[in-house]
Amino acid sequence: MTSNFLDLDKYIKRKTLIIEKNLYSYFENKNTILWQAMNYSIRAGGKRLRPVIALAVCEMLEGNEEVVIPSACAIEMIHTQSLIHDDLPSIDNDDLRRGKPTNHKVYGEAMAIIAGDGLITLAFYTICKYTKNTEYINILKVIEELSYAAGPDGMCGGQAIDIIAEKNKEFIVDENILNYIHSNKTGAIIKASGKIGAILSNASENEIELITSYCKNIGLAFQIIDDILDVKGETRILGKTARKDINKATFPNFYGIEKSIKIAKELVENAISNLDYFGNKAKYLIDLAYYILERNY
Amino acid sequence: MTSNFLDLDKYIKRKTLIIEKNLYSYFENKNTILWQAMNYSIRAGGKRLRPVIALAVCEMLEGNEEVVIPSACAIEMIHTQSLIHDDLPSIDNDDLRRGKPTNHKVYGEAMAIIAGDGLITLAFYTICKYTKNTEYINILKVIEELSYAAGPDGMCGGQAIDIIAEKNKEFIVDENILNYIHSNKTGAIIKASGKIGAILSNASENEIELITSYCKNIGLAFQIIDDILDVKGETRILGKTARKDINKATFPNFYGIEKSIKIAKELVENAISNLDYFGNKAKYLIDLAYYILERNY
């Protein structure tokens, strides 16, 4: 992280520690090979961006972090599942993820499929079982939000069109489809992360709307930068195979790098404008939006 | 269905109609290829045993069927997902299911994986979004129950050990492992079906316990008979490739057919003994238990 983001860096590290401590606790004393396979990908690291957003929203709203933690961990489980399944031979066929062999490379394809399924169900179980000190209706709203965001009109929907766009050469990707893929494949869960943090911090409707709009914008910006890094990047730094997306429906492939950076900048500016209402309390979420633009891995 | 079960047959048909009408309604106006892939397997038929159990428990307890329907449909979505993923080339590699080409044969492997994921998330979304006229705590209990039953200590857990037992010839299947596989792979969701029907019909703790025990017993009996039918069956009648399980960890492979039938009979008798408490109202659940023993497809 560059020197501009020292404060944010410390903040993210602090939140990541809290998340990982709790996330790992759900895997304690679980010793079957299936649990090991699930745990392998959960512990493979990553930026923990989504749960950090949930906790940062909670802190901005002066909510109770303990209430948000199980859902923040559930979000990371769903995200991890999507990576395991995306990496499978019949989808992206990737050998490397977060600098380590992908799940199916270690546990085999069959186990990797079931490990992904197990992580989805564990996510919803974790929310039900461990969320305390909030109204039941809030927990139900969170499950509805996450299941929608991860589902066929959200993340799965984005993955599916991405697969079609890549495998079917006659399928023409226009601006709308490009936006659909990325708003859903990555964006839906990032949006849900902020919204869930807000719901569990008893945010007003107006606050939820502002936070959702912030997340929607940074979610798409994050994916655009991810794809630019893929074009420019080195496998060593990215921790996943670089230049894999050369034939995929990405912003840099569609608009070129320069215009893609411009779009990402506008998205980040839009994102931040939603935070005016929260004044100084939004400091870390503002920094996070700028950081998404300037990160190099 | 044999003449002994004419009443039950009518009852199941009536309940199946209700389930399918509602189940299909969640797929209306959903036209992406992903939704089509999900819908293909949802509409491929099947016995609808699990949602029928949920509704039959509700009727026995004089509950409100409308309250149970979304969860009953969610259970069928999870069950369908497990079939789609089980049939994949890297797991059972099956071309035929319910008399039709398997999901990946029609939509490709990548889409079949995502269709399964989409059905899991849709299941939880359906419960949250459409369950009305019951306390929020009951809905949360249902989600906790279903996510546990479908997850790494339930259905996924059973699938994983089944995979290991089949692929790793050095893995020794003993009685405990055989029971673990089948109690979880098939049993967990059947057990959850009854329990969820009971929770949403405001059953007492004692009633929930009796119904859970009934379901646990018929669940294992159902799987044993399924495996016996596989040994004896014809592809034409079964609607899936027969004699596929010749090397798998099944009761007939482990105990032989005669002893397996004896075990299944004992399980059904145990199941029925749990229903004494409910008197005449348990008629259809009793018939269902006997039918599981005597079915031929």
Name the descriptors.
297 residues, Farnesyl Diphosphate Synthase, globular, two-stranded antiparallel ribbon, homodimer, mainly alpha
Q: Write down the overall mean pLDDT of chain A.
A: 93
**Strand order in the largest sheet of chain A:** 1-2
Overall morphology of chain A: globular
CATH level-1 class of chain A: Mainly Alpha
CATH superfamily of chain A: Farnesyl Diphosphate Synthase
Q: Rg of chain A to the nearest angstrom? A: 18 Å
Main interface: chain pair and counts:
A-B, 51 and 52 residues
Structural class of chain A: mainly alpha
The figure for the number of domains of chain A is 1
Task: Walk me through the structure.
2 copies of one chain form a homodimer. By secondary structure, chain A is an all-alpha fold. In chain A, about 70% of the residues lie in helices and about 0% in strands. Chain A contains 14 helices and 2 strands. In chain A, strand 1 and strand 2 (about 100) form a beta hairpin. In chain A, helix 3 packs across helix 9 and helix 10 (about 205-230) runs parallel beside helix 14 (about 285-295). The N and C termini of chain A lie close together (about 10 Å). At the A-B interface, helix 2, helix 4, helix 6, helix 7 and helix 8 of A face helix 2, helix 4, helix 6, helix 7 and helix 8 of B.
